[in-house]
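WARN no homologs supplied; continuing
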Amino acid sequence: MTLKIDASELYTTTCVFEMPKVHSTHKDKILDRFKKESHGDSDQKLSSYRCAKSFKLDFEKSINLAKNFRSKFKRLIVLGTGGSSLGSKAVVDALRPKIDREIFFIENLDATDLPKLNDDELKETALIAISKSGNTLETLVSLQHYTERFTTAGLKISEHFVAISDAESKAPLASWAQENSVPLLKMDPLLGGRWSVTSVVGTFPLAFCGIDTKAFVAGFEKRFEHFPSEDVIELALRFADFDTANLNVHSQWFYSSRLKEIGSWWKQLWSESLGKKKGSNFVGAFACPATGAVDQHSVLQQMTEGRNDAYTGFVFVEKNQNDIEVKKLDPLFAKKIAFAENKSWHQLLQAQGLATRQSLIKSERSTYALHLDQISEESLGDFMAFWMDITALVGAAFEVNPFNQPGVELGKKILPEYI
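OK structure emitted
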């Protein structure tokens, strides 16, 4: 399992981003800040995402509980939004061929998203409500609905429901779970939602679906047991350089349909962590995930000839267990796409990505590429850990806190005025 980084083009003289390595001159200071904020036991630590002791809190309990629920139920409803659902949803989608249970993610206050289940189906359904703060509007409103729904069906909440929250807080979700004898899994207060897929937030839903959660978490542990490598540090500092040059969009193209939801997870991690106000200035490029080759037919024109204020990553998967070979083409088709004959769909998709990247380079748009050997529990864990480190390092370079979201909190405070 090796994640390969191809970022040499970010430093070429033909690149529109030809510029000095601004943040590299402050490298030692940036790395010291990174260590204090997100690594080790410093009093200044802002997050525990790199600390196995933290993200493995209630780890075995969550897996055992999930196995117990698997033996009794056919499906799981996950109530959570943002960081409470995006990580596990992304992994479930990426490992769809391994999933042996139904799973529904209820993330939005739109009743059309609710699965239509009759009372007999509810008997075979488990539910987990996730909110570290315990105050999340979407989660609590959805939980209220399903509490009433299960109770009306004559089912015991304590036998079907699980909750995940900061158990030490006195917020509603943890208190509700304790009052109703619902199993409660604990979260570390320093482990923010978008950094929490390693914790019970991810392990319970994933284990319920039949995913090897220990292998998934091992992908994180393998990367986190060492300080970030030089190529990771160099890439993070280069991204920070781009921000200094007012490059406002960070696009990442995933050349695998199974990684589409990984793009959604990455979008939150990047945008919510780095889109910050620093004094009178603003930092953080907007994260724009795309799916190859679908978005070649939607946003490639913009990326090629639109405003030159973006940089683009390409994510390739070297092996695809599900593949089809293009046999002898219809003569009419062969007039235009003869090159596709005797090639596999996977070969064609990867070639489309390589060609798209080259077209951006020729248009003087800067790109980089990341290569996963395959999609597995460990490779996904490693890939997500890689982006956590990159994001935390860029935050340290910006001198902002990548683990809070004050702009989000302001909207929550204003909300009651509109009800």
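The longest strand covers residues 310-317.
OK
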